[in-house]
Amino acid sequence: MWRFLRRLLTSEYLVLLLTALYVLCLWPFAPEIVSAQTALEVIMAMLPLLLLAIGQTFVLIVAGIDLSITSTMAFSSVVAAALMTGDGGYLAGNALAVPVALIAFLLIGLAVGCANGLCVVRLGMPSFMVTLVAQTFLSGAAIWFTSLHSTSVSIGDLPAAFSVIGRGGIAGIPYALLLCLVVAFAAHWLLGRTTLGRWLYAVGNNPRAATVSGVPTGRVIIIAFVLSGFCAALASIVYTSRLETGTPVLGQRVLLDVIGAAVIGGVSLFGGRGKISWVILGVLFLSVVDKGLQLLGLSQSIVFAVKGGVILLAAIIDALRSRILVRVAA
Amino acid sequence: MSSARDSAASERAGGAPLLKVEGLRKSFFGVEVLKGVSFTLEAGKALGVIGENGSGKSTTMNIINGLLPPSAGTMAIDGRPYAPANSKEAARAGIAFIHQELNLFENLSIAENLALQAFPRRISWLPQIDKARMRARAADLLRRVDLDLSPDMLVNRLAPGERQLVEIAKALSGDARIIVFDEPTTSLTSREAERLFALVAQLKARGLGVIYISHILEDVLRLCDDVVTLRDGTMVDNRPAASVTTGHLIESMLGRPIAELFPPRSAAAPRQEVALDVRGLTQPGIVHDLTFRVMRGEIVGIAGLMGSGRSETARILFGLDPALSGTVAVNGTVIAQRSPRACMAAGMAFLTEDRRGDGLLLPEGVLTNVELARLADLRTNAAAPLPQAMLDRDASEAARSVRIKAHDLVRQPVLSLSGGNQQKVVLAKWLLREPAVFILDEPTRGIDVGAKAEIYGLVRQLAERGTGVLVISSEVEELLGVCDRVLTMAHGEIVAEFTWPELDRAAILRAAMQRQEGAA
């Protein structure tokens, strides 16, 4: 019995099991949780979260943390919206408006990631501090920028060619899902099959040993932050086009979900451990929990409290798991 | 079991020994790792415990410390049965451990560390610490270990040797009667070690019992009255130190006569090409005007006391630390901008003195560790796919060639390997790149004799294939046994050079110390 419990706790797919268990428990009370409609909704809700969590995973693997992702989304969202909005945008009506706006999203993501990485590497600042400051700065900047272009709290009237990204699809498969699949596969491949992937894990495990073994430690850390910023920009594109507005409060509440999902999946906050498949399961779990609580008709505040509890539980399981792994190794 | 108890009872009548261990056995998951260990420790005596890694030393000590219950066997202190359930009970029974990794809180002062078990209170029912009494007690304890420092000093400002003495003071504060030292000299300079030995003699004179565990057999013979040798969980030898030599001890540890700890030197092969050429290397306050060469196929040693600049030299050569001036050339090509990457590209390899801190990814497996340095050589885009099959094949080959003992090269974390096997992992990592110049800093620190001999053999083989080897070591015997030439450093300068067969232990030590004292 004890051995079985231990096997279960140390399994990579514990989270998947917990998800199934959760659905089974809720089934009698909210039968619609087992339906194609719910599944589709859960998947659609997962996608931008997953993009963010994948980016975050790179940073977590090098033993950092990126708290600036939500503000990066908000800032890129309003800047890009200001470029292409039909309501007095810089490129209103221009055929190039949408491509230029997309490039703006990505450039902002890359630039923020690069700045974060440079501060962490060159100035030796803790990533927690750097990205917390970036978060505050960018969310302030996003609000200020919005006030320059709009009398309301957001920038609407985005071209139809843009909103199609979040809502359209090919042969019934949403573009966002395709994008997510491509990113997840690329990230999985990068971590598992390339030199850069090995370097990311090595730097997270022991930066000194990595440096002595010829790993360009500083560059690897910067790349991790740049990838995180890039993923935040992609998530921002998906969210903004779904909302059809650029808003400075975009994704304000998902930061904890993103980090929580990664940790629930098994990515270590201490660096050196994490896989994309784990992250997908972590995001799936959180999204299912979210959906289930909504179906039960609970109020938003209770949903938050329960989610906090679930993330805490995951952290406890993570701690237990590493303790058992140490004992097995000893 | 019952006979052991009877004999303990009969001992009590006469002068019972301080600690008596009888027929200790321990099994993990049905595998017996300790197969009956018995010894006695008298008050005022020191007992040496030696054995290779995995011979059962740690298990025995963990049982004595109450961390593990024995599967069978008894222990007695002063003839009274002793069966600790945890380390707290062991401490109460008067047993103190000085661990390899010191257990001091670096952010606290010496006095606070010493008072940690029970802070003296001003008023017994108020949790307010009586600082005056705490400092007075600490000052008294520091006097007992001859450490002339203020009790208010923070522990993180102390040298390793001083920390060790604080640790001993802590043991004395708990009224310990038996003090167990586990590899106490690994991080000490020779002078600090001398101080420790004098203190051990004092402890004995005061009637305490000492258990001394070490890989350095000379120290064991010098300090201890009796020596217990363990091999594969069995006690193979237990006799007075006066009646044995280090040769005997090595033989009984290994279970076979050790023909040669050091490999034979190659018959003076022609050495024309320069592998490593260092000229005028200077970094103010660290090293001054270092100029030397290592030829291909030659093993050159650097001797010197701690702080003489020997390890710092290695770090500068490999581009980890900066140098103000001077050049380093490998195979005739000067390395322009020294960094670990540039040095590796030029053909250098560096085995650091801190194996766990700078050498290994502890949670990863053997292959991942061995492949790490190779990745920098793959002259492709970092985002290009890895030739995984080729990497794994080469790494397993390297792991086999240095005979790493691990049951799973992929999944077993190197954390769980013995010190000797961990060092072989680092060695394999560099051998895989077939370096032109290999710098080894303390290659055998904390490693048992068997693994040491294997590592010396590997270093010699490497030299025979044409690599220039630079060995830095605090063990002069090691340099005498392995090197073709020994440079002695003091105060950041090379002060003497000796060439085999004119390697002389006394002359090397004299050169290392004289300058040091002259300058002080």
**In angstroms, what separates the terminal alpha carbons of chain B?**
60 Å
Question: What shape does the CA trace of chain B take?
Answer: globular
Number of domains of chain A: 1
Calculate the mean pLDDT score of chain B and round it.
Answer: 85
CATH topology of the largest domain in chain B: Rossmann fold
Query: In percent terms, what proportion of residues of chain A is strand?
Result: under 5%
Terminal-residue CA separation of chain A:
21 Å
Q: Any idea what the radius of gyration of chain A is?
A: 20 Å
> What is the typical, i.e. mean, pLDDT of chain A?
89
- Report the helical percentage of chain A: over 70%
* Net shape of chain A: globular
Can you name the CATH architecture of chain A? Answer: Orthogonal Bundle
Helix content of chain B: 25-40%
Organism (chain A): Kaistia hirudinis
Protein name (chain A): Autoinducer 2 import system permease protein LsrD
Function (chain A): Part of the ABC transporter complex LsrABCD involved in autoinducer 2 (AI-2) import. Probably responsible for the translocation of the substrate across the membrane.
InterPro entries (chain A): ABC_transp_permease
In short:
Chain B: This is ABC-type sugar transport system ATPase subunit. The complex is a heterodimer of chains A (330) and B (520). Chain A has helices spanning 2-10, 14-26, 36-61, 69-84, 97-122, 127-149, 160-167, 175-193, 195-205, 207-212, 217-243, 255-265, 276-295, 300-329; strands at 169-170, 173-174.
